[in-house]
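so i finally got all the pieces together for this one. its two components total, 456 residues if u count the protein bits. some of the lines might not be protein, just check the labels. i wanna see the whole assembly predicted at once instead of chain by chain like last time, that was a mess tbh
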Amino acid sequence: MHPSQKDFAYTFDELNISVELVEEAMGYERGQSPDPIPEMIASAIDQCADLCNIKGSLLVSDSFALDPSGVIETLGVKFLVGRKIGAQLKHAEGGAFYICTAGAGIGERSKDLMACGDLVEGYILDVIGSLTVESAIDKIQGVFELEMIDAGKRIASRYSPGYCGWALKEQKQFFELFPENHCGIKLSESCLMDPIKSVSGIIGFGANIRNTVYECQMCELDTCVYRTIRLARRK
Amino acid sequence: MEEILEKLAYCVEFGKINLASPYPPDMRGQDGADELTKKALEMGVPPTEVLNKGLVIGMGKVGVKFRENKVFVPQVLMSAKAMSFGMAHLKPFFNDGSVVRKGKIIIGTVEGDLHDIGKNLVAMMVEGSGWEVIDLGTDVNAGKFVAAVQANPGAVVCLSALLTTTMVNMEKIGKAVKEAVPGTIVAIGGAPVNQDFSNKIGMDVYAPDPQGLIDYLGNLN
């Protein structure tokens, strides 16, 4: 298999983000947030089509080596994912490397609202931004999984820099896999992605790979918003 | 007097900002924290009592409910906003020294980390518990924390981080602060940190939630 790169773009409406899903991502039971929160969420959702610019990219490579310390080498780029993630990828025949963003608009609008005292409105947009990028990468993963099933292979859970022992500073090397500013995403000095509502990571694949441990089960961030979101989306 | 302070606490607890605010629905058309604070002061209630028996009580109830998962971030933010409208009327009394706050904290998200919602939430709740808050923002390095502590001796330093990869900067910052101003209390909080980590890097307190920090600060006085 030759390395292949595929780009994706979605409209906000394609991601089916509902009031109930946002409620759950904020900690409430579906349909149980008190007034005026459901109304505020609905109003925020209405603005998101204009605020989001949802793009992603998936680079699939089977030129892939993983050593016992968790160093991945692919397409001339080397980065350390650590032993924990390395153990989950030990049967991988290759990796699908992804970046995905909800765009700059939603994060900026959220910050602006909070700065001028509209705290709840800003927070709701922040949560929707996280849900948006997470839903988009779920869709991209779904497309990739179907391709792998057709090829007689399976995929592993996805893992991201900054979690489960994969140091954020390794993003510098990871991003060398993609053209500069691809999908409009760039890295800050401290290796955080800009736009802030962006994700990156790896999905291992192979005939014998197991998909038993999902990232949040290995992660120690009990109060992480992505954990809450993923649990909500799995229901 | 007691009645207006109870009402004020209730407005903060349930996020009733002002008369125009339509929420909570059972208080539609009634005064909110904005009007009640002003009225209490006009009635001659001492500003310290408006703060401690009205605003602080309301915010304290929200803090406890948040810890117990009975309310979530949006409700805390609504309460914080209501409180801020009340606090605006007390500002002249803080400035002229007639209301003395419990103390001062310096808070910031550590170097390399741009996340601020949790830090802001803690800052607002601590302010609502009667402390003065100096918020240094996000991506704050050791030098800025040290300068802030030197300018505000006795302030408690509160470090926030959201990422496992930036929490390591807490050690560097905490040590720099303690070296520059010995005896400074440094508290840490945020999703990736815990008591073990706090002990390991030699910090004074780990707060699992905003109320945890407020309780700790309360015991200092």
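Chain A has a mean pLDDT of 90.
The CA atoms of residues 147 and 153 of chain A lie 9 Å apart.
anyway lmk what u think
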